[in-house]
Amino acid sequence: MKNPTREEVKQILESAKKIAVVGLSDNPDRTSYNVAEAMMHAGYEIIPVNPNADEVFGIKALSSLSELKEPVDIINVFRRNQFLPEVAREAAKVNAKVFWTQLGLANEEAYNIASDAGMTVVMDRCIKVDHAVLVRK
Predict the structure, then answer these.
(1) pTM score > 0.85 for this model?
(2) Which one, of 46, 39, 58, lies nearest residue 22 by Cα?
(3) Distance between CA atoms of residues 49 and 43, nearest Å
(4) What are phi and psi of 121, to 5 degrees?
(5) DSSP states of the chain as a string?
(6) One digit per residue, pLDDT tens: the chain, 137 residues?
(7) CA 15 from centroid of its chain's CA atoms
(8) Distances (CA, A) of 128 to 49, 57, 60, 89, 118
(9) For the chain, what are the domain ranges?
(10) 68 burial class (0-12, 13-18, 19+ CB within 10 angstroms)?
(11) Distance between CA 28 and CA 14 in Å, rounded?
């Protein structure tokens, strides 16, 4: 498993507009909520994906990636490591450019599934931190 370079991550973040957040909680105390909220304030369109939430930030939540009606640039995943291969298989079917797992999350099987499907894979990195450090807006 090898993450893209800092410059490649910067290019991903600068060109992306739409992020599907898998495991996005509607609880403001959860990391996924805070990270997604920061990315939304940075100008990204956020699509919540969580079967246990009706809506997050006033946006209707999808129960799975298969419900996406349009392509997304980044699939940002907040699910435990054992669920990552399943999420990667779903992601491979929805025409996303980037499969990104949050800090502390990495799974070789998921990495291979996503990269074999043609996605750029970023694992074990916080998208909010990378955006704050790499993207000057």
Answers:
(1) yes
(2) 46
(3) 19
(4) -115, 130
(5) --PPPHHHHHHHHHH--EEEEET--S-TTSHHHHHHHHHHHTT-EEEEE-TT-SEETTEEPBSSGGG-SS--SEEEE-S-GGGHHHHHHHHHTTT-SEEEE-TT---HHHHHHHHHTT-EEE-S--HHHHHHHH---
(6) 899 999 999 999 999 999 999 999 999 999 999 999 999 999 999 999 999 999 999 999 999 999 999 999 999 999 999 999 999 999 999 988 999 999 999 999 999 999 999 999 999 999 999 999 999 75
(7) 15
(8) 18, 17, 22, 24, 24
(9) 6-134
(10) buried
(11) 26
Residue carrying structure tokens 């999350």: 105
Q: Which residues, at least 6 apart from 117, have a Cβ–Cβ distance to it below 8 Å?
A: 88, 91, 92
Name the fold adopted by 6-134: Rossmann fold (3.40.50)
